Amino acid sequence: MKNLVIRALTGAVLLGVMITAILMPPYLFGVVFFVLMMLCLYEFYGLCYKVEQAKPISRWAMVGGGMLFVSVFLAELYQAPYIIPLLYVPFFTGTFVVELFRHNGSPILNVAMSLLGHIYVALPFSCLCMIESLGASGDGSSWQGGSFVLAFFIAIWVSDTGAYLVGRAIGRHKLYERVSPKKSWEGFWGGFVLATTAGYFFGKYFPNLPEINGHQLFDWQWAVFFALICVLGTLGDLVESLFKRYFKVKDSSNMLPGHGGFLDRFDSAIISAPFAYAILLLFFR
C-alpha cells in the first residue's frame, strides 16, 4: 500500500508539472522541457557506462552536448544567438577526435553511444518544442501551441491507461514476450480503441484549438493522430524495454519514487514525438 501511495503521489506531481509547463508561455515551457531532457540524457549515459566494452565521453559533457544539439533546432524559434548552435559542430567533430587519445573500451561503441543519446533523447525533445511552436501566430501576437503538445501527451496517457486496464482484465496473447512479457495484444487494442475515440472527441469538443494556414484539423484527423501516437508510443515503450534488457537493469534510474526514472516515463514520447511533428505538418499543409 505504501508503494502504491508513493507511486500515485510521484505520478501526480510529475503530471502537474508537465501540464503546467504545457500551459505556460513558450519560454517557460522550453525551460521545463529542457530540464526534463537533461535528466533523461543523464540517465541514458548512466546506463551506457554499465557496458564493459564501452566508455562514452564524460557523462556531463555529453549532456551539455545534448543541450547544444537542441539549440541547433531552436535557435531561430527562440531567437538565440547563432553562435550557440554553431558550437555543436566542433563538439560533434571533437567526439570522434577525442577517441584518438583515449585507450578505454571500444572506440566505435564509445562514439556510437556518446552520440546516440543526442538522437534518441535530444531530438525528440526538440520536436516537442517545435510542436509547441506550431500554434504561434504569424505576427507573434499569440502562442497557442500548448494545445498540440497537450493533445500529444493525452494520446499517450489515454493509450497507456486503456492498454493497462484491458490488458489486466482480458490480456492473454503476448504482444512481444522477448522484450516485454507483460504486454498483450488485447491491451494494445484496448489502448488503440480508447485513444482513437479520445482523439475524435478532443477535436470535437476541445475549446479554441489554434488554426494553422487558415484551418483547423477535422475530428477524423485528430482521431488518426491519436491512433498513430498510440502505435508509435507502444513501439517506443518496447524500444526502451529492449535497451534496458541490454543494459541489464529494471529501471533507467530511481529518481522518480515508484516509477523508476525519467526515461521510463518518457519512453513512449521519445519515439513518437518526431513523428507527431511530421504528422501535424502533413495535416496542416
Please outline what is shown here.
This protein has 285 residues and is mainly α.
Please characterize this protein's 3D structure.
Strands 1-2 form a two-stranded antiparallel ribbon. It has one domain. Helix 1 packs across helix 2. The protein has 285 residues and is mainly alpha-helical. 71% of the residues lie in helices and 3% in strands. The protein contains ten helices and two strands.
Keywords:
two-stranded antiparallel ribbon; single chain; 3% strand; 285 residues; mainly alpha
* Strand order, sheet with most strands: 1-2
Order of helix and strand elements from N to C terminus: HHHHHHHEEHHH
Q: Give the fraction of residues assigned to helices.
A: over 70%
Report the mean per-residue pLDDT as an integer.
Answer: 85
Output the structural class: mainly alpha
Write the layout of secondary structure elements.
Layout (H helix, E strand, L loop, with lengths): L1 H22 L2 H23 L10 H16 L8 H4 L1 H11 L8 H27 L12 H25 L3 E3 L3 E5 H21 L13 H29 L14 H23 L1
Antiparallel strand pairs: 1-2
